[in-house]
Amino acid sequence: MLSILRSLVQEVNGARDLQEALDIIVSRVQKAMGTEVCSVYLLDPATNRYILMATEGLYRKAVGQVSLGYSEGLVGLVGSREEPINLEDAPSHPRYRYFPETGEERFRSFLGVPIIHHRRVLGVLVVQQRESSRCFDEGEEAFLVTVSAQLAGVIAHSEATGAISGMSLTGEEARDVSFNGVPGAPGVAIGSGVVVYPAADLDVVPEKPTEDIDGELALFRAAVNAVREDIERVASRLASQLRPEEQALFDVYLRMLGDEALPGEVANRIREGIWAQGALKQVVQQYVRHFERMDDHYLQERAVDVRDLGRRVLSHLQEGEQKHLIYPERTVLVSEELTPAMLGEVPKGQLVGLVSVKGSSNSHVAILARAMGVPTVMGLVDIPVNQLDGKELIVDGFEGQIFASPSSDLRAFYQAICDEEDELIKGLEVLRDKPCETTDGHRVSLLVNTGLMTDVVRSLSHGAEGIGLYRTEVPFMIKDRFPSEQEQREYYREQLEAFAPNPVTMRTLDIGGDKALTYFPIQEENPFLGWRGIRVTLDHPEIFLVQVRAMLKASEGLNNLQIMLPMISNISEVEESLHLIYRVYHEVREEGYDIHMPKVGVMVEVPAAVYQIRELADRVDFLSVGSNDLTQYLLAVDRNNPRVAQLYHSYHPAVLQALVRIAQDAHAVGKPVGICGELAGDPGGALLLMAMGYDSLSMNAASLPKVKSVIRSVGREWAMQLLEDVLLLDSPHVIKSCVDLALRNAGFGRYLRPGKTSSAAFAEQAV
Question: Cofactors per UniProt (predicted)?
């Protein structure tokens, strides 16, 4: 059976379309199981009916003609129960439904298994036999279940392809097709999809020898120089939109094109007698395999960069003209693997959204997208990219969702949201210099999370009172080595000066998990539970000491620095870190720098820390909750994984109970506590956190005006009553709905983020 299954999977994956795949399935399964009938019924989303789509053994004329209601007949029973049904005498079953046009009255034994993809029933796979004495055994049932699991992905992909094209299984019009990924950069965009394909295909390059080594070397060097000029041109085009440290991302590409890097290895292989294209293919594929084997997210992103460079060099080697893309006024760039260079190809002012099948919120593209303010969705599953070219798309970067072939109503709905967002931000500018204070006088500090200088400009214009989280790993990420003390000092000084005299909280280097450095690889099976955050820097004090020294020297004359320690899980880590910080402080003072000892705090993002708040607070000056990591650790959900991202919910009762406990325990020993994460930037979440007693909320700059407006318009007593009500609930979705309803009733419905909530509201309005 295993060899049959492998052969079947290969044939199905090679099918030209869904119908061919279904015909292969029913034919091969019928022969493999020795049955008289094998049929596939698919559930049509447009009509919610099962349609006979392929059969071997029933009358062929019934294909496409016979359909059953969602719970009708044995097929409907299999789908509704979502489990196999195995019967010796199907006609005697009370749910049996006879269709004369199929000719199935001859068959008595019945085995049906559901076809399920991501919890959604797509159809039912059925085998039937004439003899009533035959009962399909456990092995046959297991085989059919395995086949259905393989079939599910093929059907989902084909269904998406048809739906994007505007057609359902029955040939009727399909609209408002949605796909879920992960948020890359916040915002909503409406535009036309432009699919970007690789410049050239390295995989099909033949390997052949050459005798003209000098000629091949010359061709290769010319191609490398052409690609280098292309990248420099792209970097120059984006120069007005990006700060120098952000443009340094393009330096990664240029360094890869240095003589000592990839070109050097290719040249060596050419000298061994391999033609340029074959040598390039060998080296690039070797690099890609090396990175991909490391099972680390950031290193996999480097594989994308190498592959993209290889394709570009190959394109010049082949002297083939690249397809001339026409970019519409509102371009949504779509690709299997978006790269930074692709962004720069779009004329200035025309790029409104990004969609990438691969990648996550921490890839180079996502970093650039956030800096440029371009809504982005990444990590999409089962989406046929080539079908999106020229289609109108809605990109929801808040929820990580895109809509293809939107109806006029859905388009108008999201356009209204875009317009409201623009008007709202303009209207909230008057609040910039006003304090964030409730109507009954309770004061909350609103801070921002930053990593790039473009964040700072936006933060200051929105009235941020300081930085609650400066991600110091960003300067490390955009280089191919550890930045020197002087380089770090310049980065940190820029941030400290921009916000002086307001506080700037700098988190010490937080790598590992989903953040890694290409020049400092961390290879682990489970990086989120491994060597990351403070664990890395305490094991490498030379990194920690240089960073702290750069921070302290940068603070001279400003004295608005605060230092925050990430990923703390026990007291000894705090004590060891404090020892090193005090040591550096005295060394820097002895060097003649007039500095003050900064406040030192810890991030509460590991569940263990939740139960050590009092002990931690006794040793530091403040605490700050990293709600994103804390939530995913509490719920055991990787929020960057699109397959389980729907389980990640900041309003989960366990998360809210943990946040309440943290605030209470911190205040019990007289220490301030803040929070930085997505929940703080959500107007409803901010109200709950304010009610819990959090002293400061740190968020993305774009969220700050809305949060300030909501908090300034309510009393703390009102918020505390809302918190008391939701803490009695046991479902994160019900809690979110309750908070949203309270905001709407208070007149803040327009502040709710677009996405799943809004699209659900749209559906209700349509009904």
Answer: Mg(2+)
Q: What is the pLDDT of residue 376?
A: 92
Residue 52 parent element (H or E): strand 49-56
Segment 624-680, tens digit of pLDDT: 999 989 998 999 988 766 667 678 889 999 999 999 999 999 999 999 999 998 899
- What distance in Å separates the CA atoms of residue 610 and residue 579, rounded to the nearest whole number? 23
Please state, in angstroms and rounded to a whole number, the distance separating the CA atoms of residues 312 and 298. Answer: 22
Q: Which of 46, 53, 130 is nearest to 88 (CA)?
A: 130
Model pTM score: 0.65
A 10 A CB-CB count for 696 gives 23
> Do 505 and 595 lie in a common domain?
yes
Query: Do 522 and 598 sit in the same domain of this protein?
Result: yes
Q: Which of 278, 481, 182, 285 is nearest to 293 (CA)?
A: 285
Same domain assignment for residues 474 and 337 = no
Beta-bridged to residue 393, according to DSSP, are 191, 404
| Domain range enclosing 548 | 465-602
d(CA 176, CA 754): 15
Q: What is the pLDDT of residues 346-377, one digit of tens each?
A: 888 899 999 988 776 656 677 677 767 789 99
Does residue 496 or residue 285 have the better pLDDT? 496
Structure tokens at 560: 């608005």
| Residue 480, SS3 per DSSP | coil
Averaged confidence pLDDT in the chain: 84
Positions annotated as catalytic residues are 364, 676
Distance CA 454, CA 136 (A): 65
User: Of 318, 352, 370, which residue constitutes the final position of a domain?
Assistant: 318
Task: Give yes or no: residues 260 and 329 share one domain.
Answer: no
Tokens of 95: 């749910």
